[in-house]
Write a structure and sequence with these properties.
homodimer; alpha/beta; eight-stranded mixed sheet; elongated
């Protein structure tokens, strides 16, 4: 802020000059005192000057609606929305979101710091204020090949950037607990820069959790129970109540929010698909759910405003008070939280669900063409098994956790797997797509139900190699080749023809089109997955595959290096008898 | 923190190596969850590693006592204790104080930035962690001459210092409200450095308060009523509940602390004399009083710990949790808050009221010899009045606010004032002592009751020139000359002999001796003021004089320039008829 702006702000606050904008007739939610103040909100140069009675150059009548501070999503991976940062802004701002804390972990796994650069540049195009966390665990594990390896050294420059608030979720909690040198170096980078370190510690408790917390891990969005939550709060960690498209923890956790601990509680989505946003909303929906569960509305609002601002040290926001950013959300009431208008930085940016600013897009040149295969052909899918008793990756309900099963499969004379329509087991492969290593690893997937064709996608947490599965090597090869041509995305094939596809040219992770288009495409992909490929109705056909390569979630996963037993933390052979 | 320390901390937290220190058998106050946790506190290199069950190289049994985080005094002027920073540390640490936010406004008025340098250097000698605010209003007004003028330019270097948290109480609230350029420049210095701005706005309300708050003034310790408090909290300011040696606001204000707003409330003393500390304590006494007034003890403790740490962005303290500074205070209970032991930074620094570290002192060379008079003699006390109807500064109960009275006095043939034992009016003078301007201004003091001799002191808020009053010019001259020889302090004289004195060689504001010595001296000075000089028993003889030169407190004061009418904000003549 410059001196002249400061003078204008103070003069406006003092009622001695007309405000740039006055939002009249509000019920202002006072997050400091926990009460409602009836009055006007005066705005000067994008900041709130005062609340009370004010006159302005421009006057908008709130007609008695409630005015909330701009909402803050304390943890989200934009990439999981399959849309670009600009587009996510267009989708969530009309729901009252003013700020998101984004961890661009997925794109950095593909494009390295260049992926971060793209996200930060793209973020400049939206009214949504996107603050970033520097991904801390790229690759997520040493058991896979991602597009880059971000070690402590590579973090030194980005951690100092103004819009980088700290290190993103430190998923490698064993690395911290076990004093792994790389992890220590990364922590030190954040500490030396005076930046935050965000957490991720599902199921960790007791001494291990104390060890993790002692590194001053700021928060955790992976609490599954109220006990998890309480333990973390007492250790000084903020708890992020998560409600995303995939994980639904909010209703369970909100029962643990008390008058005593609520200031240490925040709201987040972790991931949020366009369909969820259009049907349910964003943080406005979190508020609605909190209130449905009996939480005091102002306490809920604080979790999405003041508490988040305090946690992330965003001193310029989180409240409607003099000198704060003029991020104001008008809602009809404090139960449904239907958003009427949204101002960010003093500008009206959404009205009745519509995003108002001109839509601009960052060039995606630097992050497209991210699918790089070497010597790829169906020969890479050959397995030449010595035994027909094999380990299979069995899909469990929910689709993220798997079971390590042993099954008998049909082999040809060369020991090659042959799909048996009577058995719900197919070949699955992970094809390295970043560094042209030529790596392809095969495994067997049980319970997916596919009867025809193949599915391939380049969204495969966290390294985002290509996952492909299908009823034979030809279909699988065709799917991978077509996906390569598309520059990544999701594809369904049958009889070596494309049945349906969604190109995701941004790092093979995000579409460059609208959320509505993504939603339509996903709907069509789902529909065709069941109808054309015969995938089991009890399985989510796409997201389930996306998680088949994530070697930190039990029980067994497939990376580009091979079949990985998460329980023993080691690679295992395909043949069950050789174990 | 270095990497090896971090590793040691994490290993200790994880229970995989012995802690340096374990404080066993505590009832730990969990300020995050608002509950009591029974367990041990493990310490590694001055930080808390974990709470729960731990083993340590050294073990101390807390015998079931309550463990509180180190207490924080959110606003204090060390100088008002009349002792050095090291000595204040010795006095308050045994009361559980771990951190104070000190505004060295008094010494900077005398010695400029050199005074700040001395205070910061001296602070290094005590276990008490002294954080500083850079005095924002030196001199306090343009109506007096202080030892230096600290403009925005002079603030640029000190504001960047690590232990300077921001600008100290911005007393010149009219300067902010009226967009005074100097004030704007000072605000900009803090804003550009990303530092805080502390407040001081007694009686300001409505639009003026909004104007003040819009500059993002962080807090205010000058609330007189619950209404003042509520208005400030809603405007985003923290409210500091003050209980000092002079001002007693806590019991009144604590009634305004609610479950909803308590996180925005802090505790402070503003000033705290050795006698008050030894008889009542420090922030431990604030806690005791809060609980006496019915406040939940954990809420009270939070005001002195977590809330203060959040307000001042001291993220390393304010709680007993892994990775926090090992500032731990053992108290017998949560009602009397009797302090048993204090660890700061993991070191045992006080036990049963005794300060344990070796006592070291910063050299005071740079800040002594601060009394510089030019051409001083009793001739300067001559007034040559044209009328015997004069303005008098009438002392009112409390001694800080005065009344502008008009009285008839006895004059000699030259128009010189003659003391009339029948009338409780004496001459008072302010003698400039910093820059050798030779300025001496005279006025008349009513209601002080002095019958013999004179009193002089070099502690005279905020410019700290010499204030002297007495029954005739000879006694007054003698008092000033003796005070000059002492290098400043407080002196009582009678028959041109010293009756009692307290040298204050540190800038003429602080003694270089112990708090106990200061207390004894003050007791003797008070006793002699009444017994030897006949000062009225209803008047505090020293503090009352200290405030006679502060031209921001109504109704009329005397500076080195002349008699100042605070209501009209202008100088007035001594003669009442000439007004």
């Amino acid at each position: 802020m410059e001196k002249e702006q400061l003078k204008k702000l103070i003069a406006t606050a003092g009622g001695r000059r007309k405000a740039d904008l006055v939002i009249k007739n509000c019920k202002i939610v006072d997050v400091f005192a926990g009460k409602i103040i009836e009055g006007d909100i005066a705005v000067s140069d994008g900041q709130i000057a005062g609340i009370g009675k004010y006159d302005g150059e421009k006057i908008v009548d709130a007609q008695g609606r409630y005015a909330l501070p701009g909402l803050i999503d304390s943890h989200i991976h934009i990439e999981s929305s399959y849309v670009s940062p600009e587009e996510l802004g267009r989708l969530v701002v009309p729901h009252g979101t003013g700020t998101i804390i984004a961890d661009p972990h997925e794109i950095v796994n593909v494009c390295g710091i260049q992926g971060l650069d793209y996200m930060m540049a793209a973020a400049e195009n939206t009214a949504l204020d996107i603050k970033f966390m520097l991904p801390s665990c790229v690759p997520a594990t040493p058991f896979e090949h991602a597009g880059d390896t971000i070690d402590a050294k590579k973090m030194e420059e980005p951690i100092t950037r103004e819009n980088i608030l700290g290190l993103g979720e430190f998923m490698n909690y064993p690395g911290i607990i076990n004093l792994d040198d790389d992890s220590m170096d990364k922590l030190m980078v954040a500490k030396r820069a005076g930046k935050l370190i965000d957490g991720h510690s599902p199921g960790v408790k007791g001494y291990d959790l104390a060890a993790y917390a002692s590194a001053r891990i700021q928060g955790d969005h992976e609490c599954a129970t109220v006990e998890d939550m309480e333990e973390r709060i007492s250790l000084g960690m903020y708890v992020l109540l998560r409600q995303g498209s995939a994980c639904h923890d909010l209703r369970k956790l909100v029962k643990g929010v008390t008058v005593e601990n609520s200031r240490r509680c925040l709201l987040c989505s972790d991931d949020r698909q366009p369909k969820t946003i259009s049907e349910e909303g964003h943080i406005d929906n979190h508020l609605r759910m909190c209130v449905e569960e009996g939480l005091d509305p102002i306490t809920a609002i604080r979790m999405a405003t003041l508490n988040a601002a305090e946690c992330f040290r965003l001193y310029d926001r989180g409240a409607i008070a003099p000198g704060y950013r003029a991020d104001v959300v008008l809602v009809d009431d404090l139960t449904a939280f239907r958003v009427n208008k949204v101002w960010l930085n003093g500008k009206l940016v959404a009205e009745d669900g519509k995003y108002l600013p001109e839509f601009r897009r960052q060039s995606i040149d630097a992050v497209q063409s991210s699918v790089h295969l070497k010597d790829f052909s169906k020969e890479k899918f050959r397995v030449a098994l010595k035994s027909n008793r094999v380990h299979t990756v069995e899909i469990l309900p929910g689709g993220v956790v798997t079971k390590k099963s042993v099954d008998t499969v049909k082999l040809d004379q060369n020991g090659e797997f042959v799909f048996d329509p009577e058995k719900d087991i197919v070949k699955m492969a992970v094809v390295e797509r970043h560094k042209m290593t030529g790596n392809v690893a095969c495994g067997f997937l049980k319970g997916y139900g596919i009867k025809r064709g193949a599915v391939a996608l380049s969204v495969a947490h966290d390294s985002h190699n290509i996952i492909v599965t299908g009823v034979n090597d030809d279909e699988m090869e065709f799917a991978v080749r077509e996906l390569e041509k598309m520059g990544g995305g999701i594809i369904l094939v049958n009889d070596c023809k494309v049945v349906e596809s969604m190109p995701m040219p941004i790092a093979g992770l995000m579409s460059d089109r609208s959320g509505e288009w993504v939603d339509e495409k996903l709907t069509a992909l789902h529909e065709k997955a069941y109808s054309a490929l015969g995938i089991s109705g009890s399985v989510e056909p796409l997201m389930t595959l996306c998680f088949m390569s994530l070697p930190v979630i039990p029980e067994v996963k497939l990376t580009d290096i091979g079949l990985f037993d998460v329980t023993s933390f080691s690679f295992i052979p395909l043949e069950a008898d050789e174990e």
